């Protein structure tokens, strides 16, 4: 691999998974397959929700935006890593690194926020069913999604502005397969991280508030569900709540472990595992988790993939082009 001679004033060197060319190719192929699976699954969910009018409810509206976030989130880091491995070149320009940090932080923050909104939606649906349509009015859902994207963008902007205002010294080698903020702080000329610490504290506090909100929502949800006399009713509720709870727990634990622990001087197998856990696995598994036990999603998928539906869509397209 081309080493530090590529790390000019305007760039960085991302340390890959291995210096062995065979392992680099294997890593690129595995990441490519995973990336295509994530894109296919999330785009399929978005398409199903758009096409099936039975899924035009707040829960699936938020799920559609979660899938859109997943598509964007995995596209921030994986294509660059694949390209670097195939070209045997870990170089990333300053501009690319700035964009990667901004979008990575912004989309990760947006994911945490929308998962919180989704937990509140389940709380309102199960614990306050009589007021659900008022609480989750379409205009309220739209405002919630706007707030999700705005909060993510603001978080990404603050982290990017502060992180790249710190002067860097020495070899610009980042011990990760993407521009990871904790690893980049090791390149600073001094230990004056007060601004970055303040921003990180704000972000961590916000994530902690989201986590507490999710926990409280599910405490109320499970206490309500356990009072449902019907086994079928409890099963139906758990089928929509448990996948969401699993996704929230997995994402927050992996991300929290990565960002709260001190950065290491070298890239270990543990570092790689946890970075993959919160950058690659959630966007890939979310479509499977949310559709596996969801009867409405499975029925909509069968409908969209049916021959009759393809024929109907083909007729609709022909009618549009004739106009």
Automatic annotation (TrEMBL):
Swiss-Prot/TrEMBL keywords: Cell membrane, G-protein coupled receptor, Membrane, Olfaction, Receptor, Sensory transduction, Transducer, Transmembrane, Transmembrane helix
InterPro entries noted in UniProt: GPCR_Rhodpsn (IPR000276), GPCR_Rhodpsn_7TM (IPR017452), Olfact_rcpt (IPR000725), Olfactory_GPCR (IPR050516)
CDD domains assigned to the protein according to its UniProt record, in alphabetical order: 7tmA_OR14-like
Transmembrane segments: 25-51, 98-120, 140-158, 197-219, 240-260, 272-292
Main location: membrane
Gene Ontology cellular component annotations, sorted alphabetically: plasma membrane
Membrane topology category: Multi-pass membrane protein
Recorded GO MF terms: G protein-coupled receptor activity; olfactory receptor activity
Domain G-protein coupled receptors family 1 profile: 41-290
UniProt keyword Plastid, yes or no: no
Compartments it resides in: Cell membrane
Coiled coil ranges: none
Job of this protein: Odorant receptor.
Family classification: Belongs to the G-protein coupled receptor 1 family.
Protein name: Olfactory receptor
Species this protein is from: Trichechus manatus latirostris
Gene name per UniProt: LOC101348213
